Amino acid sequence: MDHKAHRIAVKEFLIQSRGLHHLIQFNRKRLKDLESELPSLPALQIQPDKVQVSPSGDAYFVRTMEQIEELREELEREIALASQINDTICTVPPGKSRMVLLYRYQYSKTWSQIAAEMHADNSTVRRWANDALNEVILPDDPIMLSA
């Protein structure tokens, strides 16, 4: 893979970090809210040969349990992605290039904000970013969240 294609692949992977922290927080709250509803829902009546679901609350209980399981799986994937992104950025040796990636992808800073933070001009910061993107080692099986 040439440098340009590598940088594009790395950017596509790292860009997923934008808003990921907020998404994880939001989904944790949703999960907590759903789980807090469970005690107020009727329990399923399970018999050896069937599960009785009345039209009232039991079907809602089952749906809520399914939503909780789906949300747990989604959260697990989002947390794994956040960890994988952090590990990927850490494949760049410590220094200015790594700092640029952290500011850009972990903290969602603009180029101007990064330049001000690092006391450099925009073109220098972008050069450091390109150097860093060339040095990143992508995971063998990168997690990609669907859009």
Key structural traits:
147 residues; mainly alpha; elongated
Task: Explain how this protein is built.
The model has no long low-confidence stretch (mean pLDDT 87). It is built from 6 helices and 2 strands; from the N terminus they run H-H-E-E-H-H-H-H. Helix 4 (96-106) packs across helix 6 (122-135) and helix 5 (111-118) crosses helix 6. The protein is mainly α and 147 residues long. The radius of gyration is 22 Å and the shape is elongated. The longest helix is centred in the middle third of the chain and has 33 residues, at 57-89. Helices cover 65% and strands 4% of the residues. Strands 1-2 form a two-stranded antiparallel sheet. It has one domain (3-135).
